[in-house]
Amino acid sequence: MANETERRQRSASEFTARTLVNVVRGLSSSAEPSSALRELLKRSAASRGLLNELLGDEERPAGLRATAAVALGREAHPETEEALVKALAAEDPSVARRAAEALGKIGSEAALAALRKARPADEPARRSVDFASALISARFGLAAERLPNPPQGQEIAVDRSTADQLLPARVGPKQKAAVLAAAEQELPGIPLADQALVGLECGRHFYALGLTAQLRQIADLGVLADADAVLGVLFERAPSNDHYFLFEYLLANPGRGGRRVEVYGVQPNGTFAHSGELQPASGAFRLRTVDPRASPPVDIHGTYDAATGALRFDEILVQSDFRVAQMEPTLD
Asked: Are 171 and 199 in contact (CB under 8 A)?
């Protein structure tokens, strides 16, 4: 028994792609299935057909199916969308959640109908379904589905006496290449504009903000008073290496009365992190934190020039010493 366990724990990198495929399909015990799938994905040897098959096989472990759903969210294809739509009804909430997140990235307008019908009992899965609908609506400039706005006045005030004032940081060639590689993989349906990036450094955390091609194509910001849009995406650098992962989407929704545009920072799982507004006439914007578990309190002011695509920050305040406990009521 010990020898069998030891054999199964051999590194998946030691096996051929064919053996790894058999492991994933449950036809071989040469390696651990999740490790085998990760190695196939690393080698770009997991075909769309295999991933679709795996996602649709309810006999396979939920973790494998969820990983397949994430991978399928990296390429828009009719067969992929069909497999992800079916997975919305998966009994395991992690599979349904990952399928919804993938559909948000690559789903067509037709996927909205399926997402509207999906009502998972699991709250995180339901939140991902709702956000996927909102993201598709924003990607296509519709006014079809939106997340409920955070309650007015929920933004956290920054204590200027203890806040740090940050300046935009340069994104060097190596960092830029890493961010663009991550964007190509994570955001196949949301191209960035001219590959222009702005760096934001906060302590040991480094972020790269990319504006979208969708925003760059808007010559008059007034159109945002009538339609949703994805304005930008924020990537964070992993502390251990130069790998970047998707941290937040910046979405625009028409504001009340059409006089302003509401801007939200939403994490990939549908959690609101930031909230603010954009003045279409001047391009002036402001963004603040609404959930300190997702981000320390920030107060960011700046302007965006639709004619030139120039983004300027007038002030970036971050209260890094803020503690979530400060929001909790004190018990007598």
From this structure: yes
Helix (H) or strand (E) holding 100: helix 93-106
Q: How far is CA 163 from CA 80, 296, 299, in A?
A: 46, 10, 10
Phi and psi for 284 in degrees, rounded to 5?
A: -75, 140
Q: How far apart are CA 72 and CA 103, in angstroms?
A: 9
Please report which residue ranges of 108-197 form alpha helices under DSSP H: 111-117, 123-139, 173-186
Burial per residue of 285-294, b for 16 or more beta-carbon CB atoms within 10 angstroms, e otherwise:
bbbbbbbbeb
Q: Can you tell me the distance from the alpha carbon of 32 to that of 15, in angstroms, rounded to the nearest whole number?
A: 11
**What tokens does 263 get?**
């801007």
Find the radius of gyration of the CA atoms of the chain: 21
Q: Pick the residue with more confidence: 240 or 205?
A: 205
Collapsing DSSP to helix, strand or coil, 95 comes out as helix
- pLDDT of 129 higher than 60: yes
Q: Is 254 helix (H, G, I), strand (E, B) or coil?
A: strand
* Dist CA 292 CA 275 (whole Å): 12
Question: 136, 60, 66: which is closest to 98 by C-alpha?
Answer: 66
Tally the C-alpha atoms within 13 A of residue 206's C-alpha that lie toward its C-beta: 19
Sketch the domain layout of the chain as residue ranges. Answer: 2-139, 164-327
Q: Compute the average pLDDT of residues 188-193.
A: 92
Statement: the pTM of the whole predicted model exceeds 0.85? yes
Q: What is 263-279 written as a DSSP string?
A: EEEE-TTS-EEEEEEE-
3-state secondary structure at position 238 = coil
Note the pLDDT tens digit of each residue in 87-121: 999 999 999 999 999 999 999 999 999 999 998 99
- Domain 2-139 homologous superfamily, CATH: Leucine-rich Repeat Variant (1.25.10.10)
